[in-house]
Amino acid sequence: MLRRTLLSTALAAATLPLLGGGARAQQQQQLYSSLHVFIPAGPGGGWDGLGRAIEQVARQAGLVGNFQFENVGGAGGTVGLPRFISQRRGREGSILVGGAVMVGSVLANKSPFGLKDVTPIARMTTEPGIIVVPAGSDIKDLQGFLDALKSNPGGTSVAGGSAGGIDHIVLGLLLKSQGRSAKEASYVAFAGGGPAQAAILGAQVKAGISGVSEFAEQIKAGRMRALATTGETRSLPDVPTLKESGIDITLGNWRGVFGPPGIKPETREGLVKFVTTLHGLPAWKEMMERQGWEDAFLPGEAFEAYLKRDEAATAEVLREIGLI
């Protein structure tokens, strides 16, 4: 069984729910007058959703006065990452939000820059993936999708995130489970959640793979049909996991916070204190529940050690399914 903790997606800032009055964050001592948040992806995806959630809870708690967001998307974060590294090196009051997708994208794109070039602050959340088809699709269930992959992988186009990321890995593993090669996949990579949704809803592709929260509203509205999720347990009551459907694949998509390279130890400690304080707030727990995220908090050096293991495991999986 392949077990990893990896990302997928959340809602854009405009769709983040307001926290209820009874659960509003208790006012804390302000830690930053201003915080720059760099998102190496377009608005509306999982990393942007986590960044906006951090902003909302931190503002209400009084931890940060002002936020400045910068979105630079492309190639699973590998376009924006060099910009953050060069422009924010050694500077205080700045964070990058990234996750598991970038680990695979760095390898698949042979990027000279990776998460090794920034400062790990904390892993924050994880989220299972979900496989969907348009509501009008002739694929009615997971078995129908697997049959299509087995008989005609090139004709079964699947939308997802960047090449080499978790969505791509899920598809590769599914193909392998059916005796096919990941190289046979008709995988259509999108830089953001919005374009991928549009392609699925417009039946421009046969299916889509992303984080549960990315498609939850479309499933609820009846515009998409959910076939299976990739978690250990069900994320949606009526949607089986791959594992309980007889496919021994368990994957989750982690997201986290990073500081610039070259920052002082006390600067890193300050950022770790910030995310640790945020994580302890009742309002943060409420936010995770509303977004459908699972708590995966792992701060500082423990997160740094986890990253090394995750990078090695991702490389092994990508080689196994022929993506690198």
Automatic annotation (TrEMBL):
Keyword Cell cycle found: no
Listed InterPro entries: BUG, Bug_dom1
Extent of the signal sequence: 1-25
Keyword set, alphabetical order: Signal
PANTHER family: TRICARBOXYLATE-BINDING PROTEIN, UPF0065 PROTEIN YFLP
Family per record: Belongs to the UPF0065 (bug) family.
Name the UniProt record assigns to this protein: C4-dicarboxylate ABC transporter substrate-binding protein
Organism annotation: Teichococcus aestuarii
